[in-house]
Amino acid sequence: MAYELSLAGKQAVITGSNSGIGLGVARELAKAGANVILNSFTDREEDHALAAEIAAEHGVTARYIQADMSDAEACRSLITEAGQCDILINNAGIQHVAPIDQFPVDKWNAIIAINLSSAFHTTAAALPMMRAAGWGRVINISSAHGLTASPFKSAYIAAKHGIVGLTKTTALETAQEPITANAICPGYVLTPLVEAQIPDTMKEYDMDRETVVRDVMLARQPSKEFATVEQLGGTAIFLSSDAAAQITGTTVSVDGGWTAL
């Protein structure tokens, strides 16, 4: 049987998607024919302009809905306002780096709320819609740090490990339904934010671009190449396809071999 990767007629809600990984994934889903809901905590003209641009480029419906992913009710209201959620991409996330004994409590609480609890709330709101529609995909953007750890990132790593656990539980609760739940675990991804960090890192280490990327930024990524947002989007499209109907409750690493070490 041949499987198509078209997502025509489906609607995807992507949290934290006005930049970076979320926006890249949204663009790829739209390219595959899905209608998309973009989201972030801001409510600027440029946010809505992004949605209009995607709609015009790919001939789909695209909207931007402001919602603060640190707020439980806002997370659930995002799904309600979307009206349809066939594919849920939980991507929203923030980071803070500090030793455990110096980690600010407010930063811990914010990271757990945005990186982990938001996915619980959006999933809880989306599952009834998926069940009513008779089809659904929950795709959580975890991290290589959802499978391994690094020092000074306690909240982020706890949240990303938690996302993997939430994914497994969601998969088990929907295992006998046409709904799947999986986590994508990226390594270092080349986003505009990461690109902007390269010049400062070059200065800090007194290295050229190629060396600082290979030996500093990608020190733990054996491929010595960044993953791309397009690759993550392509992975999400595959997990949303009928070819992946029996892939549920697992992690898909897009990390250049990081977690193989």
Brief account:
The protein has 261 residues and is an alpha/beta fold.
Give your account of this protein's structure.
The chain contains 8 helices and 9 strands. It folds into 2 domains: 205 residues, Rossmann fold (3-Layer(aba) Sandwich), CATH 3.40.50.720; 37 residues, no CATH class. With 261 residues, it is α/β, with parallel strands linked by helices. The protein is globular. Strands 3-2-1-4-5-6-9 form a 7-stranded parallel sheet, with helices on both faces. Helix 1 crosses helix 8, helix 3 packs parallel to helix 4 and helix 6 packs across helix 7. The mean pLDDT is 96.
Give the helices and strands, then pairings.
Elements: E1 11-14, H1 20-31, E2 35-40, H2 45-58, E3 62-66, H3 72-82, E4 87-90, H4 105-133, E5 136-141, H5 154-173, E6 179-186, E7 189-190, H6 192-205, H7 209-217, E8 227-228, H8 229-240, E9 251-254
Parallel strand pairs: 1-2, 1-4, 2-3, 4-5, 5-6, 6-9, 7-8
Helix pairs in contact: 1-8, 3-4, 4-5, 6-7
